[in-house]
């Protein structure tokens, strides 16, 4: 790891101020992702803004209007163990509880989980070329590239995959992101607006302004009953990265689906919204989708590489299981 | 807001931690991980250095009572905090009940993973004195062992849990 200056703000506002003052400074939450990146010397920031002393970022609150606001500095263990989250957002509690390992869940924060970088082995090893780090092409896409865990949607020119297994559940819950500290002050972002598409020579994944930080994730209240389910396909049952994550959120009118949200993880450079699957579910009766939904619509638009052809099939399986999970639980 | 310079050439910072119940003042280079400071600056080499990437669990210590991977924590973040390492498990009477159970049942073979398992197990038993096998499997899933096949590790934790329960019951009978 290389030299850096370490700043220790006490509030999120102070942290943003430090980030604006020091161009190139990097915010550090749990450090689960960042320390790997620094040790491999993929990134070598001069200034690190440590969020370890920040006291106003980890609260989990139920607002008066029924919205749930989840502080960006809450850890995955906080989410999994919170009575509030378990009661109102059980699918999120389960997803947080299945991620990584107990030790990691005690440190990994919600904000850092959404902002984490790809696990692409080329990006993560300094000695390999990578489009995001200045190479002219993505080596994953070349013949002989290691493709197994690569993205199958929006994978040209960069075939990286966003690995969060928590993000799809938040998407299915209709979450929005509260950011703050930038030129526009506090603002709410639609869930998908948090991420940028990959650009050559840029490794940052978020569409934030200088100084902006994720402050919280807000789950809006719903006037109608909502059911959310999720499913992950992993090689090992625990302590492994999912190959594919799917989450399905259904807003109901009696037994009919008013609105469907289907999100996938580990399949594209950003969490991926499966709109064709949403269209296949919207307006249908629950009994009908239970009998007929085969999940294949979730893979529509996929452009797999030779080594990731299997993933389109896994997407269908995961989407089907996520729907079953949503229907099974209330 | 305070500020600390970090880097190979940067001066060492001084910090006071509580390590295994004692207050310790330690000087270390500011970009060092908790794992490195424990092993290299404090000479506590019981905490093992494995993958250094969060993937094996052998570097686990308890930070304010919670199991964390010391390879992914900066030393700078530990000021004033309570750290428990494997060196802190044995008491004046020798190895702890968990350590004894590990030895009796052959739950340590090469032993490289053992410190991490012991600390997670200590944390589990502090919260849940009689964990089910399924709970143990889940709670210990962040620690890899390439030798034992895990079974003996689960059995050892269960043996320690059972002895603690029997010990507590005996104390109850004797009005202790
Ligand atoms: C072995 C292993 C297995 C894992 N398995 C899973 C899994 O199954 N599912 C899963 O979802 N994840 C998994 N993870 C990933 C882990 O959950 C993330 O690395 C972690 O959540 C990152 O959070 P952090 O607080 O440590 O972030 P940090 O490492 O501190 O930061 C990560 C990134 O987020 C940025 N950042 C942090 N906070 C903010 C903020 N508030 N606003 C803006 N930017 C911010 C940082 O600048 C950095 O770019 C695994 C990790 C490991 C090591
Ligand atoms: S050395 Fe820390 S997890 Fe492997
Ligand atoms: S005893 Fe050798 S790795 Fe566990």
Q: What labels would you give this structure?
A:
heterodimer, A: 330 residues, alpha+beta, five-stranded antiparallel β-sheet, four-stranded antiparallel β-sheet, 12 helices, B: 176 residues, Ubiquitin-like (UB roll), DNA polymerase, domain 1, five-stranded mixed β-sheet, 5 helices, 6 strands, binds flavin-adenine dinucleotide, binds FE2/S2 (inorganic) cluster
In short:
The complex is a heterodimer of chains A (330) and B (176). Helices cover 28% and strands 21% of the residues of chain A. Chain A is an alpha+beta fold and 330 residues long.
Characterization of this structure:
The complex is a heterodimer of chains A (330) and B (176). Chain A is α+β, with helices and mostly antiparallel strands and 330 residues long. Helix content of chain A is 28%, strand content 21%. Chain A has twelve helices and twelve strands. In chain A, a hairpin with a 6-residue loop joins strand 11 (256-265) and strand 12. The mean pLDDT of chain A is 96. Chain B has 176 residues and is α+β, with helices and mostly antiparallel strands. Chain B has two domains: 6-86, Roll (Ubiquitin-like (UB roll)); 97-173, DNA polymerase, domain 1, CATH 1.10.150. A five-stranded mixed beta sheet of chain B has the order 3-2-6-4-5, with helices on both faces. In chain B, a hairpin with a 2-residue loop joins strand 4 (60-63) and strand 5. The radius of gyration of chain B is 18 Å and the shape is globular. The termini of chain B are far apart. The model of chain B has no long low-confidence stretch (mean pLDDT 93). Strand 1 (4-8) of chain A pairs antiparallel with strand 1 (2-6) of chain B, so a sheet runs across the interface. The site of one FE2/S2 (inorganic) cluster has 12 residues of chain B, from loops. One FE2/S2 (inorganic) cluster binds next to loops of chain B.
């Amino acid at each position: 790891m290389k030299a850096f200056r370490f700043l220790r703000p006490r509030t999120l506002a102070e942290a943003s101020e430090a980030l604006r003052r020091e161009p190139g400074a990097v915010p550090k939450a749990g450090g689960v992702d960042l320390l790997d990146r620094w040790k491999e010397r993929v990134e070598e920031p001069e200034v690190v803004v440590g969020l370890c002393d920040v006291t106003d970022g980890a609260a989990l609150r139920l607002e008066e209007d029924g919205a749930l606001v989840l502080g960006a500095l809450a850890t995955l263990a906080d989410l999994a163990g919170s009575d509030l989250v378990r009661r109102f957002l059980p699918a999120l509690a389960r997803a947080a509880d299945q991620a990584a390992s107990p030790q990691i869940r005690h440190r990994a924060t919600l904000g850092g989980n959404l902002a984490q970088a790809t696990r692409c082995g080329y990006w993560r090893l300094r000695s390999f070329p990578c489009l995001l780090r200045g190479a002219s092409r993505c080596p994953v896409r070349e013949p002989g590239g290691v493709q197994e865990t690569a993205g199958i949607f929006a994978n040209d020119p960069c075939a990286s995959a966003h690995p969060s297994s928590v993000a799809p559940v938040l998407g299915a819950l209709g979450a929005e992101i509260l950011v703050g500290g930038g030129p526009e002050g506090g603002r709410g972002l639609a869930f998908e607006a948090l991420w940028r598409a990959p650009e050559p020579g840029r490794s940052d994944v978020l569409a934030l302004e200088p100084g902006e930080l994720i402050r919280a994730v807000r789950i809006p209240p719903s006037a109608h009953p909502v059911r959310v389910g999720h499913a992950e396909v992993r090689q090992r049952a625990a302590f492994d990265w999912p190959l594919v994550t799917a989450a399905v959120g259904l807003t109901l009118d009696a037994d009919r689906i008013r609105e469907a949200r289907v999100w996938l993880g580990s399949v594209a450079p950003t969490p991926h919204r499966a709109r064709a699957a949403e269209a296949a579910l919207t307006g249908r009766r629950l009994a009908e989708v239970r009998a007929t939904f085969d999940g294949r619509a979730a893979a529509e638009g996929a452009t797999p590489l030779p080594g990731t052809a299997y993933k389109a099939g896994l997407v269908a399986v995961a989407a089907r299981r996520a729907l079953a999970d949503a229907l099974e639980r209330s | 807001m305070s500020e600390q310079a970090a880097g190979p050439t940067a001066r060492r910072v001084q910090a006071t931690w509580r390590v295994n119940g004692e207050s310790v003042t330690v000087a270390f280079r500011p970009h060092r991980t908790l794992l490195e400071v424990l092993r290299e600056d404090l000479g506590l080499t019981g905490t093992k250095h494995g993958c250094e990437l969060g993937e094996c669990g052998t570097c686990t210590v308890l930070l304010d009572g919670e199991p964390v991977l010391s390879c992914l924590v900066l030393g700078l973040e530990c000021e004033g905090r309570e750290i428990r390492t494997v060196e802190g498990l044995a008491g004046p009477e020798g190895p702890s009940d968990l350590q004894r159970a590990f030895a009796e049942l052959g739950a340590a073979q090469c032993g490289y993973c053992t410190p991490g398992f012991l600390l997670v197990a200590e944390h589990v038993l502090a919260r849940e004195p009689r964990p089910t096998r399924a709970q143990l499997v889940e709670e210990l899933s962040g620690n890899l062992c390439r030798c034992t096949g895990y079974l003996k590790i689960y059995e050892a934790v269960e043996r320690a849990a059972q002895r603690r329960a029997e010990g507590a019951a005996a104390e109850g009978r004797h009005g202790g």
